[in-house]
Write a structure and sequence with these properties.
It contains 20 helices and 16 strands. It is 46% helix and 17% strand. The chain has 653 residues and is of the alpha+beta class.
C-alpha cells in the first residue's frame, strides 16, 4: 500500500520522463461528409497521430485511461444516429499501472457515424469530441467538428442564450485609458522573482543532499567515474555530464504543468485553490512526514530502478550516463520525494506564473543535487573531507518530517479558508505550529526519540544550534499569538488576522471597509466620488497576505488606502456558488464558452478579460467613471506602492 501511494503521487505530479512540447500538435484532424441518400449521411472524422503518441478508443476499459467521447449536438431533434460510432483498427495492451487491458490508436484513427436527418431545413451538424492523447504524459483535449450537408462553409452556432450574453457583457468593462495598465511595467515590481524561486529550489536540493538516500551516493558515484575511465579527463567529463543530466531530469519534471497552463489560462490557479486537492496534499504531506519519522519506508517500484540500471549498463556512453541519472532520481525518491512535494506546494502557494515558478524551483533543486558530483569530480581530494554517514542524517530526516507537517497545515488552511469552514482559525493554526515547534525542540535536545533513532550519547554542535533556532522560532510565535509582537516574518502562511476565533469588526484586510462585489463597490465610489483600489486577491494567496500585512499596514500607506480610496477586494479562489439567477455561460472572443457558477469563476474571468492577468495579488486604480489612473501593480515594496497610490490620486480628475 505504501508503494502504491508513492507511485500514485509520482504519477500525478512527477512523471519521470517528460518530453518538451513541440510546435506540432499531437493529433491533426480531418473530416468529410458522405451523402448516402436524401436523408442519410455518413460523418467521417480522421486523426493523424504524431509519432510516439497514442489516443484511446471509445471502448477502452473504464478503469484505465480516459476514453474518447463524442457528443452529437441536436441528436434526437434535428437528426438521429444510426447505430454507434464505428472505429478503425485499434491496439489492445495490458496496462501494469491500471491493471486492465486498454484499447488505443497509434499513427491514425478513423471514426464513422451514420445519421438520419429529421429536420429537412437543417444544413449543419455539430459534433464535440473529448479525448486523451499520451506520450509519457497524457493531455486531455477537445475538438469541434462542423459538417454542412451542402458543402458550404460552416458557421459557429452560438450556444449562449440571450441571458448569458447580457450577463457576460456586464462582466466586460468599458475602460478608459486602458493602455496605461501596461506602461512602465519594467519599473514596477511585479510577480514573484523567479530567481528567488530558483534559490528556494536550490536550498531544497542542498537539504536533500544531507539525507541518507543521497549523501552516501556522492563518493561512490564520483569514484565510479574517476576510477572506471581510462583517462582522468574522461572521468571528469562523465561526472559533469552526469550532473547535467540530473539538472535536465528535474527540469523536465516541471513541463507537464506548462501543458496544463496551455489548456486553460486559469487551470493552475483552479488546481492550487481547489478544496479537495488541498486536502489531498495535506494527507500526502502527513503521509510523507511519518515516513521521515521512520514508521515506514517510501519507495518507488524496485523494477523501475532495476530497468534503468540495466539500461545504463547495456547502452553505455552518454545515454548510459543519462539512465544512471534517472536511476538516482528513482532510488533517492524516498528522501527527495517529500522535499519535491514541498517544493511543488511552495511554488503553487507563491502565486503568479505557477508553471514557470515550478520550472525554476525544480531546476534549482536539480542543480543543487548535481553540484557535488561536478565539484568532487574536479577536486577528488575533497572527498576525504566529507563527514561520514551516520545518525546525523536521521536527525535531518526527522526535522524534515516536522517541517512537512507544518507545510501540510498550510494546505489544510487553504481548504478551510476557501471552503469557509471556520475550523482552522488563525490562533488555532499558530497554536498547532507552536506545539510542533516545542516537539521539534525537545527532540533535538534528545528528550525523546523516534523508532529508527539510535540512543543520543552526546548532542553535536549542529544539533544544538538547530535546537536553539527551533526554540527561538517557537518563542517568536508565542509572542505573536499573545500580541506582544507582530508576525510579519510569517506573513502569508497563517490565516489572515481577520480570520480569528475572536469577533472582528470587519472581514476585510486590516479592518478597512471594503466591497467584495465590483458593481456594489463601483456604485458606492460614484456616490462618494472617490477613486477605486481594485484588489484581485485570494483566500489562499500567500503574496496577498504579505502585501496586506507588510505594505498596506505601513503607517504612511494605510491612511492613503483607508481615507482616499474605495477598496474592492475580489477573491478569485472563492468556491462559494453563485445564486442560480447569477450563473451563466461566458463566451470568449475565440468562441470558447465557460460556465460561471461560483465566485472564483466570475472574478477570475473578470480579471482575465478586462486586465489580461490571472495572477494575484493584482492591483488596479480606477476612477468612478472607469478611467485607468496608473499602471497595474503586483508585489511591491512600501515606497513604490505608496508613490503608486499617490500618483493615482493625482491622475484622478
Amino acid at each position: 500500500m505504501i508503494r502504491f501511494f508513492a507511485f500514485l503521487f509520482f504519477l500525478t505530479v512527477m512523471p519521470l520522463q517528460v518530453i518538451a512540447q513541440t510546435e506540432d500538435e499531437p493529433v491533426v484532424w480531418e473530416q468529410q461528409i458522405n451523402k448516402i441518400s436524401d436523408t442519410e449521411y455518413e460523418l467521417v472524422m480522421q486523426a493523424k497521430i504524431l509519432d510516439g503518441w497514442h489516443m484511446y478508443s471509445q471502448f477502452t476499459s473504464e478503469f484505465g485511461s480516459l476514453p474518447s467521447e463524442f457528443t452529437y449536438n441536436g441528436n434526437g431533434t434535428i437528426y438521429e444516429l444510426i447505430d454507434g460510432t464505428i472505429e478503425s483498427e485499434t491496439i489492445k495492451e495490458y496496462s501494469e499501472i491500471f491493471e486492465v487491458e486498454e484499447t488505443y490508436f497509434k499513427d491514425e484513427a478513423t471514426f464513422t457515424q451514420r445519421i438520419k436527418i429529421l429536420d429537412p431545413e437543417i444544413n449543419q451538424i455539430d459534433v464535440d469530441l473529448f479525448f486523451q492523447v499520451c506520450k509519457e504524459v497524457c493531455i486531455p483535449m477537445d475538438k469541434k467538428f462542423m459538417f454542412t450537408l451542402d458543402g458550404s462553409a460552416a458557421e459557429i452556432i452560438n450556444t449562449v442564450d440571450d441571458r448569458s450574453l447580457a450577463l457576460g457583457q456586464k462582466l466586460r468593462l468599458d475602460l478608459k485609458n486602458r493602455e496605461l495598465l501596461t506602461q512602465g511595467q519594467d519599473t514596477i515590481a511585479t510577480g514573484t522573482n523567479i530567481w528567488v524561486i530558483f534559490g528556494l529550489g536550490f536550498l531544497g536540493g542542498l537539504i536533500a543532499l544531507l539525507t541518507p538516500c543521497v549523501f552516501p551516493m556522492i563518493p561512490l558515484t564520483v569514484s565510479f567515474f574517476t576510477k572506471h575511465s581510462q583517462k582522468k579527463s574522461k572521468g571528469i567529463i562523465n561526472a559533469l555530464l552526469y550532473g547535467f543530466f540530473i539538472v535536465l531530469i528535474y527540469f523536465l519534471l516541471s513541463l507537464p504543468f506548462h501543458l496544463f497552463d496551455s489548456v486553460d489560462s486559469q487551470i493552475l490557479n483552479s488546481i492550487a485553490t481547489n478544496v479537495w486537492l488541498n486536502l489531498l496534499f495535506f494527507l500526502i504531506f502527513i503521509f510523507f512526514a511519518f515516513s521521515f519519522f521512520g514508521y515506514y519506508e517510501l519507495t518507488l517500484p524496485s523494477s523501475w530502478a532495476n530497468k534503468m540500471d540495466a539500461a545504463s549498463s547495456k547502452v553505455g556512453g552518454v545515454l548510459g550516463i543519462f539512465f544512471m541519472a534517472v536511476t538516482l532520481a528513482i532510488v533517492s525518491f524516498s528522501c527527495t520525494g517529500p522535499i519535491l512535494g514541498g517544493l511543488l506546494g511552495g511554488t503553487t502557494l507563491a502565486e503568479g506564473e505557477v508553471a514557470s515558478n515550478l520550472t525554476a524551483g525544480m531546476t534549482g533543486f536539480g542543480a543543487a543535487l548535481a553540484l557535488p558530483f561536478a565539484l568532487f569530480a574536479l577536486f577528488p581530494a575533497w572527498l576525504n573531507s566529507l563527514p561520514k554517514s551516520g545518525g546525523w542524517m536521521t536527525t535531518v530526516k526527522v526535522v524534515l518530517g516536522f517541517l512537512e507537517i507544518g507545510l501540510a497545515l498550510k494546505f489544510l488552511s487553504n481548504a478551510d479558508l476557501v471552503g469557509h469552514w471556520g475550523i482552522l482559525k488563525r490562533e488555532i493554526f499558530l497554536g498547532i505550529w507552536i506545539i510542533l515547534g516545542i516537539a521539534m525542540t525537545l527532540y533535538l535536545f534528545g528528550i525523546y526519540k523516534f523508532p529508527h533513532d539510535s540512543p543520543v550519547k552526546k548532542l553535536s554542535l549542529g544539533r544544538k544550534v538547530t535546537a536553539f533556532v527551533s526554540a527561538a522560532f517557537t518563542l517568536y510565535m508565542i509572542l505573536g499569538v499573545t500580541k506582544v509582537t507582530n508576525l510579519k516574518l510569517l506573513s502569508g502562511f497563517p490565516p489572515p488576522e481577520f480570520y480569528s476565533i475572536f469577533e472582528q469588526e470587519s472581514d476585510c484586510p486590516l479592518g478597512i471597509d471594503c466591497f467584495k462585489d465590483f458593481d456594489e463597490g463601483l456604485a458606492y465610489a460614484k456616490k462618494v466620488d472617490k477613486p477605486i483600489l481594485l484588489d484581485f486577491t485570494g483566500w489562499a494567496c500567500v503574496n496577498c497576505r504579505k502585501m496586506e500585512e507588510n505594505v498596506w499596514s505601513d503607517s504612511e500607506v494605510f491612511p492613503i488606502i483607508k481615507d482616499n480610496y474605495i477598496l474592492i477586494s475580489l477573491y478569485t479562489d472563492d468556491r462559494e456558488e453563485l445564486p442560480e439567477n447569477e450563473q451563466f455561460n461566458f463566451q470568449f472572443e475565440s468562441g470558447r464558452v465557460k460556465e460561471i457558477n461560483n465566485i472564483a469563476q466570475k472574478w477570475g474571468t473578470f480579471q482575465d478579460v478586462n486586465f489580461g492577468s490571472i495572477s494575484q495579488p493584482f492591483y488596479v486604480l480606477l476612477s468612478p467613471d472607469l478611467e485607468v489612473l496608473n499602471t497595474s501593480i503586483q508585489n511591491s515594496d512600501i515606497p513604490t506602492y505608496k508613490n503608486w497610490l499617490l500618483e493615482g490620486l493625482r491622475n484622478n480628475k
